[in-house]
Amino acid sequence: MVLQTLRPWRRPWKPLLLTWFASSLSASEAAEATRATLEARVATLREELRAAEAALAAAEDDGTSAAPWAAGPAVCNARMRTADLSAAAEYLEKQHALRAPFYIKAARRSFQKGLKQAQGIDKSNRDPFIKQHEGQLQLLGALDLAPGSAEIWFEAAKVAVALASLTDAEGQAQHAVDMFAHACTLDPPKLKEALAWLDKKESGKSSKITQEEQFVRKLVREQIEEWGESGSVPVRHPDFLSTLKDGICFPTREYGKMASAHPKDVAKIVDGFQVRNAFPTKILSVNVRSRLPEGFTTRLADLAVRKYEQFGKKYTDIDPNDLNDKFFSFQATHADRLSRSDEKKWPEMYRDSEDFKILTRVMKGALLGFLNKTGITLPQGDQGYGLVLWAAVYPGNGGRHGYHVHQGSASSCVLYARVAGASTPISFIDPRGAPPVNDYEQYEKERDFEPQAPFHHNEYFFPTEGDLVCFPSWLVHNVPSHWETETRVAFAANLQGDGAWDSWFHTAVGWS
Ligand SMILES: *[C@@H]1O[C@H](CO)[C@@H](O)[C@H](O)[C@H]1NC(C)=O
């Protein structure tokens, strides 16, 4: 498979582990060794251990954690797990183009807040540099998501002008000039547009542009006018965004190679660094198809689709997302404690389906297994926690599931019974850009919320049929609009605490 050849860092792990054991020191050797040779041995052992750990991680990987940097500039640094890299990359490139404008708007909001601080209207901070920095990061997020879009570069340049006006205008103006240059290189008519915009004395809502911003506009305009006269736009690689050049597509992961660049004494210190990954977020996945009865996923998907279609007939003219909510509410979600009257709601599933009984056991086991595998023991076993299980059907009419977490649950799992190729992933959001404790229900439309840059690279999991993925219930996740001819069917489950306040504590505090 092509993916194998894209993984140059992948090394056979067995030989490495063997050398590691073989090079352990014997007691007599250690006694004779000088301090210097011992230190050298320790460094070598550490290096080998690191390589062995990396090789082990690669060996445990089933090959679907693709190497996205092979897939082109807009997605080369995307975090994703897919069995079909080119389809996933094509999908993500479109997603990224849709996401980019949000970050332009976010940067403008940062500017507005910074301006209020600078003007003393907002007294939270007299110095607007934090808002300026926040805005700059959001602009970089936009450019990172749509590096080939002249429009995004152009809009980013405009906001960069405003942001520059908050502090140190002269130093910052050059960045805006570089962005205009890049936009004009991608799309030459933008030059005229830029000059016209720089001339304006009022902004969109006919509010006056500040004197500071007028000053930046003038600085920028002076340079851009020269391009018009000479008829050529200078080629500028914006050096404040080095990651947007070749560097963003990290070709391999190289560990521990920096030390030689330091003087000897510093190198020793650097070499001695212990690495800890703080605040981990663990996502577990496995494909269940080969381990369960033939046709398991197909039969469950068929049952869910049939019910969903019947159910939908009762509600014509309803938004697909509202229908999904209604379908959720209709279901008897406490799957391992169903009463007779629950069974009557959906007898084909709840009463007659052997597959559903298996599904119930698998999901309960997976939710507990997720905790167990990541080192968590629930104080009272699984007493006090109950299974919640439901089917989610996305017929391909734009249905989606907005950003959310599962309050009150410890772990969450999803089993994919039907998918539409490498499209409509589940996105797990980097908690550094989307705090778990936040009200995501306030964001009604699909593009009302995006995680804050530079923590805007979601973990995209493109499921294949039979994939089971588990994650902590506090991890913000969403399913983007599903526009496909193929229906997507997932069974989602939570391990929900009966009145427990500390459901999130197990993995939030317990993982290290
Ligand atoms: C996980 O389950 C095994 C088997 O029941 C048990 O021995 C082990 O202690 C569990 N680990 C945790 C962290 O609960």
TrEMBL record:
Keyword tags: Coiled coil, Signal
Signal peptide bounds: 1-30
One Pfam family cited in the UniProt record for this chain: 2OG-FeII_Oxy_5
Coiled coil: 28-62
Stored InterPro entries: CHP02466
Entry superkingdom: Eukaryota
Entry protein name: JmjC domain-containing protein
UniProt organism field: Symbiodinium necroappetens
Lineage per the UniProt record: Eukaryota, Sar, Alveolata, Dinophyceae, Suessiales
